[in-house]
């Protein structure tokens, strides 16, 4: 019964997101949309783990549901990073920052001088850390080579740098080394969590 509750949660979050997409009056922020995507992922992944005890082919079911959740996540991630019209209003002028911690220190200065609400600072910082963590999870559980540190590290380094470059070229954001640092911090934290023995035993089925 619990596994169907997971599916219901995922379905409700998906329907709310569809309403946001097709509605002319309801427009969620990027953060709100991200939360809805995470809820969908939790619902589908929760169903996958809870259903392992009642299906014959556990591995097949595990990979099918995780693959579906991964595709949903990738579609939403692509939209939020490159296609969301709100991005063109947030960062109209593309720029490049190759000085590590420069943007992070600017956030800290803005906090000290009260020129930017603390909520905005936290959302930007934590949001950048969490953005690719679901990506890290799906890559880790679906692709065995990615369970080793070096392939995992260099794969995400290339992906995240690639995202920054594309955002700059398409003028939907700035290329910022601090975004790379925060994004990489998130996927590396996720990697460490997945290596904790009792979590690794609970998560992986092979």
Helix/strand layout:
Elements: H1 2-22, H2 30-50, H3 58-83, H4 86-90, E1 96-97, H5 102-113, H6 118-130, H7 133-142, H8 149-169, E2 175-176, H9 177-194, H10 197-203
Parallel strand pairs: 1-2
Helix pairs in contact: 1-2, 2-3, 3-7, 6-9, 7-9, 8-9
Quick recap:
With 206 residues, this protein is mainly alpha-helical. The chain has 10 helices and 2 strands; from the N terminus they run ααααβααααβαα.
Question: Would you give an account of this structure?
Answer:
- With 206 residues, the chain is mainly alpha-helical.
- The protein has a two-stranded parallel ribbon.
- α3 packs antiparallel against α7 and α6 crosses α9.
- The chain starts with a helix and ends with a helix.
What is the arithmetic mean of pLDDT? 84
Major pleated sheet: 2 strands, parallel
Query: Strand fraction band?
Result: under 5%
First and last CA, distance: 25 Å
* Structural class computed from helices and strand pairing: mainly alpha
Q: Which strands sit side by side, in order, in the main sheet?
A: 1-2
Separate helix tally: 10
Poorly predicted runs: 88-92
The ordered string of helix (H) and strand (E) elements is: HHHHEHHHHEHH
Shape: globular
Q: Find the count of extended strands (DSSP E, 2+ residues).
A: 2
Helix content: over 70%
Radius of gyration computed on alpha carbons: 18 Å
């Amino acid at each position: 019964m619990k596994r169907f509750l997971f599916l219901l949660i995922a379905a409700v979050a998906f329907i709310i997101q569809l309403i946001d997409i097709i509605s002319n009056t309801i427009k969620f922020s990027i953060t709100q949309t991200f939360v809805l995507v995470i809820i969908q992922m939790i619902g589908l992944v929760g169903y996958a783990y809870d259903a392992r005890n009642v299906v014959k082919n556990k591995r097949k079911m595990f990979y099918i549901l995780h693959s579906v959740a991964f595709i949903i996540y990738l579609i939403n991630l692509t939209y939020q990073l490159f296609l969301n019209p709100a991005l063109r209003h947030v960062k109209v002028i593309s720029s490049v920052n190759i000085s590590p911690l420069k943007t992070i220190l600017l956030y800290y200065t803005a906090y000290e001088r009260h020129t930017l609400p603390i909520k905005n600072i936290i959302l930007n910082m934590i949001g950048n850390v969490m953005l690719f963590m679901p990506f890290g999870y799906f890559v880790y559980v679906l692709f065995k080579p990615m369970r080793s540190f070096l392939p995992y590290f260099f794969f995400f380094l290339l992906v995240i740098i690639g995202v920054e470059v594309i955002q700059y070229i398409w003028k939907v954001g700035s290329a910022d080394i601090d975004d790379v640092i925060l994004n990489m911090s998130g996927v590396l934290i996720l990697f460490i969590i997945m290596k904790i023995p009792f979590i690794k035993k609970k998560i992986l089925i092979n």
